[in-house]
UniProtKB/TrEMBL annotation:
GO molecular function: RNA binding
Record's subcellular location: Cytoplasm
Keywords: Cytoplasm, RNA-binding
Listed name of the protein: SsrA-binding protein
Origin species: Mycolicibacterium hodleri
GO biological process terms, semicolon-separated: trans-translation; trans-translation-dependent protein tagging
Amino acid sequence: MAKKSAADVKKHRNNQVVATNRKARHNYSILETFEAGVALMGTEVKSLREGQASLADSFATVDDGEVWLRNLHIPEYHHGSWTNHAPRRNRKLLMHRTQIDNLIGKIKDGNLSLVPLSLYFTEGKVKVELALARGKQAHDKRQDLAKRDADREVIRELGRRSKGMS
């Protein structure tokens, strides 16, 4: 059986994205992205299937050769009992040893962070898209906003010209 490429996996997501970190691309410049599995308890998966999670203040760290996702908020499962999980507990990320060693080297070399971009289901398994990112300064954010506005204006003008309005 042929091995699936990353593009194939992303195509077959079937819009099962649970949560996205919308501010991540605004506050950080993304250098590289990784996909990692998440070690979860049963009630966490059930809560995620209901579409409840928040990546707002979450980040990832590498401790003792393991990658941990911190501050991910998965609310308690409302049909759960005393076996419910803690909403903001640290969750272990599942990655290959070579990927973890690669991340450790890159984080120690530069002023880089591991930021989760999205949380989604792939073939019944919960995955997180991690980004190796560098924080943006305020002037970088302003430049990005100005560039986006200029691009939007160019597209509007091209649309007007193609319709013969200008």
